[in-house]
Amino acid sequence: MFDPNFDPIWATAAETAAAIRTRQVSPVDVMRATLDRAERSQPVLNAFVTLCPDRAMAEARAAGEAVMGGEALPPLHGVPLSVKDLVPTEGVRTTWGSRIFADHVPKHDAAVVARLRAAGAILFGKTTTPEFGQKPLTESPLFGTTRNPWNATRTPGGSSGGAAASVAAGIGAIAVATDGGGSTRIPAACNGLVGFKQGLGVVPQEWAQDGFGNISTITPMTRTVLDTALMLDAMAGPHPADPLTVGRPQPGFAEAVRNAPARLDGTRIAFRMRLGNDRVAAEVIRLCGEALAALAGTGAAVVETEAPFENPEAVWFVVNGSYRMAQYGHHLARHRAIMDPVFVRQMDRVASYSAQELYAGIFQRTALFRAVQDWFTDADIVAMPTLSRTALPIDQDFFGPITIDNEAVPNLRAAWYPYTMPFNLTGNPAVSLPVGLAQDGLPVAIQLIARPGEDARLLQVAAALERARPWAHLRPVVPGLD
Fold first, then answer.
1. What is the pLDDT of residue 101?
2. Which residues are catalytic?
3. Residue 352 located in a structural domain
4. How far apart are CA 178 and CA 72, in angstroms?
């Protein structure tokens, strides 16, 4: 018998899968509600490049038949799933946010998409991204600007802005995102979500052109820590085409979260308010402090550290810029006029790097890795803000200053998200978690980092913070939807 009180919009993936399994709700009703909300959200949020309602409803009907037929059901059976438009999806348009590929339809799913579908999730749409994911503001010449569900005058962040805006607005509980310099954690922080960047080698990226020096990861985007763990259980594990994953079986992430200890006695947490930056908003300082006090209340030993740190933006710029120039530079000669001017300007800035400069950057990346691992001599978890302030204005100039507590601060990348890109370079697992709402009504987040290989432990600490300071009940009111 179906439960009329079940809410298919705000239920978590874990709750939805359980309700489908116990016949409290049908996959058809869940998908119909999700697609309806997605379609009505487009004029407000513009979070989707493509919706695939016919295919999604057909798969939902098949999922319902499997339930009624008493078949064995996978863990995410019938749960709606959206996928960032950087990640290939069989038979569903994948544009990389670019006019160049406006009509591109892949013949195969990325491994993570295939694994999530095998786990029962049903793809219903592709979410927006800036062109080739190379901007923390989600806008592109192909689809326009995506807006933050908490405040339409603010950006949802990027480059997984569509994924974050949709999940935050109750349009599917889980989404596939990516993170090459903070592209999951930045929008998660802007939208009050869990943004988990797993360590290198946890989730395969078998189509990455550099399988050895990759700094980008395919990630979950969810509202709760358990949903993140459920996605990782499906996504993680070795793939023969990704050398970073070979021979690295993964633990049960959902089991680790469900069995997480109630207290964090003996866990050492080192907090860094700054990471090579000078300015942090007072509201960020206050709310991160409250979150750390909550962790201390569970038994963790929290110590603030101000050890010097030179933010590696210059290293990231060389390594990532050289990679992207090799990957996309050939498009500039043929398609410059139809490409995002911000992307073009970024590529022009890195076009002259030599092979020697690239390898100097790679050497610096290795030195950074070793320096960051030294942090864990005296700590089990390192904490810091995810962003120095709440979501930026929707019309923020990428190359202009940002405002922190009414003061203009130059260099958006170094001033707003100095905390995220270092851990793409080092490969440490890192998670952004909501810690409350600032006075402007927008979410603020804290980031927790663990040693390589300790992704499950990091999720357990994240779960402890979620229990101490619940956030899933905090939801935006979206005009036209709510």
1. 97
2. 84, 159, 183
3. yes
4. 31
